[in-house]
Description:
Layout: H1 2-23, E1 34-35, H2 41-49, E2 54-57, H3 60-74, E3 82-85, H4 94-100, E4 103-107, H5 110-122, E5 128-131
Parallel strand pairs: 1-2, 2-3, 3-4, 4-5
Helix pairs in contact: 2-3, 4-5
Amino acid sequence: xxxxxAARLAAVEARIERAARRAGRPAGSITLVAVAKRKxxxxxxxxxxxxxxxxxxxxxQEARDKIPRVAALRGAAAxxxxxxxxxxxxxxxxKWVAALFDQVESVDRVELADALDxxxxxxxxxxxxxxxxxxxxxxxxGGVAPEALPDL
Length: 152
């Protein structure tokens, strides 16, 4: 099973490298984020053992248990992982996200950015964020409107 994970990861990385070459980009400029939601900590730790370093999670409650469990399964000597919060984030969960994650990929409002900044500072951390912009103007899509982006 571990060999299968390693082979599948290598195949995805090879596809990324080919796509990067076609686009005229260095493959190292692309980050593969393995989304771990609803996957057991053991499977995440095994994929990390196969070489994956970036993991995405969209359920705060699940991440609260999973992230420390994955670290424990991997041991103290293992290379650190980078955890990404992916998906829509409620402001009331910003405290947990700032403590658990290294990056938030879906910041779409000033209140959320302020809450993440405040909680990360209290935790003595720097949290990378990606801003989500709704260029299509579709109401069912997330993201800040382009005209509101300067405020964010």
